[in-house]
Each structure stands twice: as structure tokens, then as C-alpha cells.
Amino acid sequence: MMTEQIHSSVPAIWFSFIAENIEHSHTAMPDSWHFGITKKDADTCVMLVKAGIKTASSVALASYLHYESPIPTEGDFAIITNWEGEAQCIIQTTAVEFVPFNEITEEYAVKEGEGDQSLAYWKKMHWEFFSKDLRSFSEPITEDMMVVCEEFEMVYDL
After folding, report:
1. 77-81 and 32-33 as β-strands: parallel, antiparallel, unpaired?
2. Which of these, 31, 76, 114, 121, is most buried using a 10 Å CB contact count?
3. Local structure of 81: helix, strand or coil
């Protein structure tokens, strides 16, 4: 989810990253965003990323299409913020797959890093999340809906 106003920490973290990674000096500052749709989710997930536990994220394809958001591609950077929009770290996408909801694997659920990292937990929490998100624009949620599964690595931390 894109933040409305950009906190001053967002360009600051990007310029710090560039100063230490000069090979990316011609790369435009990437979008900044936080995980989830609640403060608890956003702040918990960014802590999991910074701890090296969360290395993947999932969004319903319908959501990307509805909001006309670019689908991540391998090599993309993103500045991850907390709920308040304060930059916390920079990630780089390492893989993107389109997977039907009912074909998500246990291995992928572990990469998401949330809860007990089980597939059952992933399905329960993501079904609830996708339901809220898709319902907001009257999109049906189905077992075979496409999910954009993004894997990433944290490349810079404060």
C-alpha cells in the first residue's frame, strides 16, 4: 500500500543506501509502502523483515489491477515503512510468481514469516485480508483467485 505523504526518512534512507551502493546511483528512488491494512500488521511485518524472518509477501492480483499498481518484478527496490510512514528498510524483489490461492505451498508460507509460519495460518490470515481488500471494490474472493507472490531480500537497514 502506497503512503499518501512521504516522510522525510524515506528519501533519507534511499540516499544513505545510494551512498553505500554507488552502482545504484542512477536508480530512481523507489516507492515506499507498508505491509497490511492495520498498524499492527504494518509494524509487525516490518519487524519480521528486519529480523530476516519475512522474505515474501502476497497480494491478490485483482487488487493490483483495481488500484492500477505496478506488479513487482525481479530487481525492483521498495522502501518499507512502519504504519506512520517512517522508513525502516529497503528490500529488493528476487522472484515473482502468480499462484492460485489454493496452490500456495507450505514452503511459501514459511517465507511469509507470519504467525506460526504454517500453511494453515497463511491461508486463514490471507483469506481474511484478501476478503477485506477485495470486498472494498466488490471483487469476489475464490479459492482459485490469482495471488502475486513476491519474494525479496532486505538490502538495507537503518
Report:
1. parallel
2. 114
3. strand
Q: Is residue 3 part of a domain?
A: no
Q: How far apart are CA 145 and CA 26, in angstroms?
A: 37
Is residue 157 scored above 70 in pLDDT? yes
Question: According to the model, what pLDDT value does residue 2 have?
Answer: 46
Give dist(CA 145, CA 116) in Å, integer.
24
- Residue 58 bridge partners (DSSP): 149
Kindly report the CATH number assigned to the domain that includes residue 67.
3.10.400.10
Q: Whole-angstrom Cα distance, residue 13 to residue 35?
A: 18
pTM of the model: 0.92
Our CA angle for 85, 88, 91, nearest 5°, is 110
Percent of the chain with pLDDT over 70: 97
